[in-house]
Every structure is written in C-alpha cells, then in structure tokens.
Amino acid sequence: MRRAHAALAERGIPLASNQVEYSLLHREPEVDGVLAACRELGVTLVAYMPLAMGALTGKYTSRSRPPDRLRRSVGPFRGDRLDRAAPVLERLGEIGERHGKTRGQVALRWLIEQDTVPIPGAKDARQAAENAGALDFRLSKEDIESLSDATQGWRG
Ligand SMILES: NC(=O)c1ccc[n+]([C@@H]2O[C@H](COP(=O)([O-])OP(=O)(O)OC[C@H]3O[C@@H](n4cnc5c(N)ncnc54)[C@H](OP(=O)(O)O)[C@@H]3O)[C@@H](O)[C@H]2O)c1
C-alpha cells in the first residue's frame, strides 16, 4: 500500500482507499500495520465482511449455523468459533439495548468509530435498512473500549 501510495503521489493522484477484511472478529489490520498506515497516509480503510459473514448479528449459534456449506466451513463458523464469540455477542447485545440498536448495528458502528468505512452485505431490503441504522448514533468511549477488550483474542 505504501508503494502504491508513493507511485500514485508521484503522478499527483491520491490513493483514496484500501479494502481489507476488518471486523470485531477479524482485527488483523490493527496488528499488521494496515490500519495505522491508512491513518498516517490519509487512505480510507474500507472494511469488508464487517459483520463476520453474519456472525456478528447474533442470529447464528453452534447449533444453528448458516444454511450454506461454504460459510459453515470458513472463518467465524468453523469449529468452536461461534461458541468462543458468545461473550462478544452478549456485550454487543448489552450495548445495543442501551442505544436501541441491534448487535449488527453496534458492530458496524464500532468500525465507523475506528474511522473506517464498513461495507456490509445484505440479502434483502430489511437487512440493508437495518445496516444503514449504524449511521445515526455514536458509541461512547467506554462502549468502544469494552468491545475492543472483549475481542482482544481476534487481533492476531
Ligand atoms: N475485497 C474482497 O476480497 C472481499 C471479500 C469478501 C467480501 N467482500 C465484500 O464485502 C462486502 C460484505 O461482505 P459479506 O457480505 O461477505 O460479509 P458481511 O457483510 O460480514 O455479512 C453479510 C451477511 O450477513 C447477513 N446479514 C447482513 N445484514 C444483516 C442484518 N441486518 N440482519 C441479519 N443478517 C444480516 C447476511 O447473510 P444471511 O442473512 O444469509 O446470514 C449477509 O449476506 C460485500 O460487498 C463483498 O463484496 C470483499
């Protein structure tokens, strides 16, 4: 990204954004330097799979996994990962209740509070409208820290 940024800058073109996987259950951009470099260079980090493929909405559990085989075999749905994420979903629920928001909206808002732009997928208009509800509230410093603390294990 730094090389691309420099090559474009030589031609007077700003590097506008970098799209990487980033969510409460995938915090690698904080560890691999991408988020810090985005902030330093003024590049917008576009966060893909910001709902961890739906896991952060709280509608899936280890006993009720997504219907499609592909999702069941990857990322947050593999092995015991949904069970390990249960405390995170609980915290999202508590914070959401205080704000009148869903778990997914709080998870998206946490990304926005990191100055990133999440691009959640939606299967229908209801999901799209719900996800847009991440835009009209703020998380407190305590909320943000509480979620960051609860997901330390997902940084690596
Ligand atoms: N650059 C890349 O390499 C890359 C890679 C992957 C994805 N992306 C992009 O990132 C974006 C999002 O990725 P993604 O869709 O895979 O992951 P995501 O946004 O983390 O999860 C989206 C899924 O969560 C569920 N969902 C979304 N909103 C919901 C709501 N309000 N209530 C309940 N369930 C909800 C839906 O699936 P169900 O209802 O079936 O559970 C939806 O398909 C897409 O635009 C995709 O193209 C980019």
Structural summary, described in words:
With 156 residues, the chain is mainly α. The chain has a single domain (2-154), classed as NADP-dependent oxidoreductase domain (TIM Barrel), CATH 3.20.20. Helix content is 46%, strand content 8%. The chain is built from nine helices and three strands, in the order H-E-H-H-E-H-H-H-H-E-H-H. A three-stranded parallel beta sheet has the order 1-2-3, with helices on one face. It is globular and about 55 Å long. The structure holds NADP nicotinamide-adenine-dinucleotide phosphate (NAP). NADP nicotinamide-adenine-dinucleotide phosphate (NAP) binds next to helix 8. NADP nicotinamide-adenine-dinucleotide phosphate binds at residues 19, 48-54, 57, 59, 66, 104, 119-123, 127, 130-131.
SSE map:
Blueprint: H1 2-10, E1 17-21, H2 28-31, H3 34-41, E2 44-48, H4 69-72, H5 81-84, H6 86-99, H7 103-113, E3 117-118, H8 125-132, H9 141-150
Parallel strand pairs: 1-2, 2-3
The structure holds NADP nicotinamide-adenine-dinucleotide phosphate.
